Amino acid sequence: MEFTLLDVSTGLVFWSAITFLLLLLLMKKFLWGPLIENLDRRETMINDAVKKAEETQRKSEDAMKEYNKKLAEAREEVRQIVAAGKESAEKVKADILEEAGKKSASLVEKAKKEIDSERADAINQIKQLVVDISISAAEKMLKRNLNADDHISLIEETMQSMDKKD
Question: Would you say residue 105 lies in a domain?
């Protein structure tokens, strides 16, 4: 009997099916199983990496929000410090101007008092000089014809007339 490639043999089909099933079982155990297991591990690893990346991104966004919040607080604090410094400088300026005004007013008042005192002293000296000159002139005119009581009354009259002129 001649055997051709197109002939079907039940024994050959049986052993081919068993060999195919055996090969399929061996491939599943040694090839597909580890391959699927590696793919599952890789998928898990990728999913974990994605989750970690998302968590890191969320944390960095939270940190950025916190940083921006603190930056805004720091800017506000700086603005308040600058405003307080300006206010303090204005107060110091006002205090200095007020103190200078008080000192200048007291110096002007003191100068006025000194001027008034000097003027009064000068007037008294002039009065005394006028009295002395008047007495000297009167003595010379009268050539000592007056007594001591006449001198005193003459001086008092002269002083009173000088006071009335001022």
Answer: yes
Tell me: pLDDT of 144 over 60.
no
On whether residue 9 sits in a domain, the answer given is no
Is residue 85 scored above 80 in pLDDT? Answer: yes
The string over 22-57, giving b where at least 16 C-beta atoms fall within 10 Å of a residue's C-beta and e elsewhere, is eeeeeeeeeeeeeeeeeeeeeeeeeeeeeeeeeeee
Tell me how many helices (H) and strands (E) the chain has: 3, 0
Please check whether residue 5 lies inside any domain of the structure: no
**Residues in Cβ contact with 154 at an 8 Å cutoff, skipping those fewer than 6 apart:** 135, 138, 146
Residue 22 has pLDDT above 90, yes or no: yes
* Domain span at 89: 23-165
Q: Is residue 83 part of a domain?
A: yes
Give the chain's domain count. 1
Q: How many other β-carbons are positioned within 10 Å of the β-carbon of residue 151?
A: 15
CB of 154 closer than 8 Å to CB of 138: yes
With 0.70 as the threshold, say if the pTM is over it: no
